[in-house]
Amino acid sequence: MVSLSDVARSAHVSKMTVSRVINHPEQVSLEIRTEVQQVINQLGYVQNRAGRALANHRHYNIAFILLDNVDEIEPYYAHLLIHLTDVLQAYGYTLEIRHEHNFDVTNVDGFLISGVRHSDYNALRNLSIPVVIYGSEPGITAVDIDNTIGTQLATELLLKQSYQQILFLGMDVDEAFEKNRENGYRQAMQTAKKPIQIYKLANDGHVSREFLIGLSLMPKTGIVAATDRLALGALRACIYQGLSVPHDVGIVGFDGIYVHQLAEQSLTTVKQPLKAIAQQMVHLLLDELSGKTVQSVYIVPELLIGETTK
Amino acid sequence: MVSLSDVARSAHVSKMTVSRVINHPEQVSLEIRTEVQQVINQLGYVQNRAGRALANHRHYNIAFILLDNVDEIEPYYAHLLIHLTDVLQAYGYTLEIRHEHNFDVTNVDGFLISGVRHSDYNALRNLSIPVVIYGSEPGITAVDIDNTIGTQLATELLLKQSYQQILFLGMDVDEAFEKNRENGYRQAMQTAKKPIQIYKLANDGHVSREFLIGLSLMPKTGIVAATDRLALGALRACIYQGLSVPHDVGIVGFDGIYVHQLAEQSLTTVKQPLKAIAQQMVHLLLDELSGKTVQSVYIVPELLIGETTK
């Protein structure tokens, strides 16, 4: 049986430091943490979670609550969950998944929540343990991408590539992220003194394809789509009408998980940085747990250049 | 504070029955369980997990271990995880996710494991708590779809629709599920006394598109693809070569999550029944926990008819 002393000796650190890496990783520098963790893995030292929990009055368990319906689950949740698991594991925490409005605090130190609606905010504000949501809401610690900057970057790219009219293909939902994506387009167009054209549809490639075929797109059109599904439909409308992409029409989507790669031409898209989102969510939650004051984080997304822009 | 007695009174059952629904749900009929659970939810009775765990020598926590790399995560894992969470929640268990070879049994009653390789089997056989894997392996309790029947159904459909030559587009990996999918095609073709044509490629739509364009497909060809990604590439090769699908070429994919809907024409495909897989995995694990002898379950998949067959 490998002991804590064995780990300390091999890692050339004190037993106190090993204990801190295990029990309070947030108090140790990333360098030392990585080194000690490597030795722990090499020697096969098993951390006794129950003993550690008892000693620290913590459960070392975080619950991720997904409030979306199963039909609305986007495939990128698989990646978000795995990244969250990886980051929490590195800090010695486990991740529990819940799929209902279950804010029972037994055995958990904090909540990470996705799919929050307005009706949930009061419940969240009254919880006795820290909460970080994936999304945006004043008064609750949140991590999100900066959706406004995302579509702003998309619109600016199409403007720079001298498409004549640029339209926005939005989702017909009353959600903050959708409004922000619309605003990013609007701001870039206003700055460029170009006329604004906004359409709102169901988030479905077949719907956007039919709609754009009905619109009879002109050459030199740019399309900023609020999702990759909408962008995929736009690409198919162009193919149907014999318009060449990106020569005649430029298209930029949003999300950058799976869908953009499955298109006939890989989509240029605003990429959700899921690993960075997972890291920020965990860091904010652990900071709150250590009693620090934290602020919501909005990550600036980047364009992933594909074959639907020049 | 709502008590156990309050729940018993409202549900018109004994306190013993309420206790059993909470502590040993597997011993109570689905009907009574549903009724009592509804009363528990209505009254807002909070189950004290810590007390229950102490009383029953159980943790009421199951760990799902995903052994795939993050790059290999297929989008359907999001659905599988949510279904597992839902089923376990109904039995009063939590689901913990792990993403490494971490078989630490502290705080868990059993493991559900996906992405198992041959090198893991010895470790799994020596665990002190029950294990159910998603996949197939003699000697370990497993839940999987019957991959052989899946491609057999696909091949028989194409034979019935009188495509002249039917080829199999497989994945170039040395895995049991791939061999079984190949065998299902092979058996159906042997029964029909038709010549066998098997190709093996990387699981990538672009690769299969290029490959099939190089092959110059003839009209009246049927294609059984081992994945929807390969089927998507096949559809695109047909579009490129001016072959009409399903008139000239019939295509059947495999998996039925996301990819088949994103194709130019919705793919006919063998659907992974993820909800049924999740239910079976949990039932087998809970049966093992109650000391029952269990056997691996292979679920017969169904064809989802899309627009790539007649």
TrEMBL record, chains A, B:
Domain of life: Bacteria
InterPro entries: HTH_LacI, LacI/GalR-like_sensor, Lambda_DNA-bd_dom_sf, Peripla_BP_I
Family matches, as Pfam families: LacI (PF00356), Peripla_BP_3 (PF13377)
Gene3D superfamilies: 3.40.50.2300, lambda repressor-like DNA-binding domains (1.10.260.40)
Residue ranges annotated for the HTH lacI-type domain, each copy included: 2-56
Molecular-function annotations in GO: DNA-binding transcription factor activity; transcription cis-regulatory region binding
Keywords assigned: DNA-binding, Transcription, Transcription regulation
PANTHER family hit by this protein: LACI-RELATED TRANSCRIPTIONAL REPRESSOR (PTHR30146), TRANSCRIPTION REGULATOR, MEMBER OF GALR FAMILY (PTHR30146:SF154)
Official protein name in the record: LacI family transcriptional regulator
Organism, as annotated: Weissella hellenica
